Amino acid sequence: MRIVVTGASGLLGKKVASVSERHHQVVGTSFQDRSYGHQVLDLRSAEDISPFLDACRPEAVIHTAALTDVARCEAEAKLAKRINADATSMLARWCEDNGAKLVYVSSDYVFDGESGPYREDSEPYPVQIYGYTKLLGEMAVLRGHRRGAVVRVGILHGMNDRRDKRTVTLDVLRALRAKQRMVLDHGRIKYPTLIDDVADALLQVIADDARGIFHVASQEPVTRYEWALRVARAFELDDSLLVPDPELEKDVTPRRPVDVRLIDSSTAFAIHGLDQSLAIIRGQLRKEALA
Ligand SMILES: NC(=O)c1ccc[n+]([C@@H]2O[C@H](COP(=O)([O-])OP(=O)(O)OC[C@H]3O[C@@H](n4cnc5c(N)ncnc54)[C@H](OP(=O)(O)O)[C@@H]3O)[C@@H](O)[C@H]2O)c1
User: Fold this and answer.
1) What does the pLDDT look like over 155-198, one tens digit per residue?
2) Is the bond preceding 126 in cis, omega lying within 30 degrees of 0?
């Protein structure tokens, strides 16, 4: 199958592109990062989207690209809407008109985190611009494209290469290896989800031609501090350098949800627990060091 992966220079998109390449013909897109040799596609320019897809003629589009910086979305709301919602709407329209399948990666941040756990049909209620624009993207996919699928994921971690963007796992590893003390939030609950699991789930949605909303997230609740302790244990590092702070993110702006557990009612997806995910990442880091 010919698949376009948008955001193939991002944390999740890199994994999705490399996993997809095993079985499919893949065209990855990037925006500012030109180092992977992907096609350049600027989602701010709505008029560029259809000609790009006309030239590629994909049978499926996995849309991972987004403005993911929550603070920047708040400061530049119009830009966030253009990239996260309007561009998604253009992709949905092209896919609908051309018989292609669109799978859109969305976020746990479409919920406020006050009354979870959340099922696929729970009422979304985003509390910051990022979540709101991701929700608008979801609506564009579900309303504009009969075969559209929305895959909501929890906070991501994983390993592609040395240029991956920051994740809690990699931040903790770097700090502990450098013997640096690290203060971590011990108030909010996160569900660390492995990018490899998400990539597999996205491809499964395409293979099944599944439509509607899907939840792909770990079910293991941890604070960032507890997550860091597990990283220290998995990599045999000194956890006495880790310091919990229950108030660290209490008043952070823009507001973040306290606890969004995404329930997968379809039970369709295999998701690794945190210790297993960390063992996988450890193996991948070893391989990368040897490469
Ligand atoms: N990371 C998380 O914890 C998390 C949690 C929940 C949901 N999600 C969702 O999962 C998806 C992937 O997230 P991620 O963290 O892997 O993303 P990321 O690492 O921040 O990468 C974002 C990607 O989007 C591309 N992009 C940004 N602005 C663009 C523009 N104007 N035109 C075209 N492409 C543009 C970037 O390209 P360049 O780098 O080349 O500029 C990059 O490839 C997103 O849809 C996000 O909303 C992520």
Assistant:
1) 999 999 999 999 999 999 999 999 999 999 999 999 999 999 99
2) no
Q: Which amino acid is present at 242?
A: L
Q: What is the pLDDT of residues 242-291, one digit of tens each?
A: 999 999 998 899 999 999 999 999 988 999 999 999 999 999 999 888 66
Tell the burial category of 76 from Cβ atoms under 10 Å away from its Cβ (0-12, 13-18, 19+). middle
Would the CB of 148 count as within 6 Å of ligand 1? Answer: no
pTM passes above 0.85: yes
Our answer on whether the CB atom of 19 is closer than 6 Å to any ligand 1 atom is: no
Ligand 1 pocket mutation pick from 39, 68, 193 by most atoms within 8 angstroms of CB: 68
Q: Is residue 140 lining ligand 1, measured as CB closer than 6 Å? A: no
Ligand 1 pocket member 76 (CB < 6 A): no
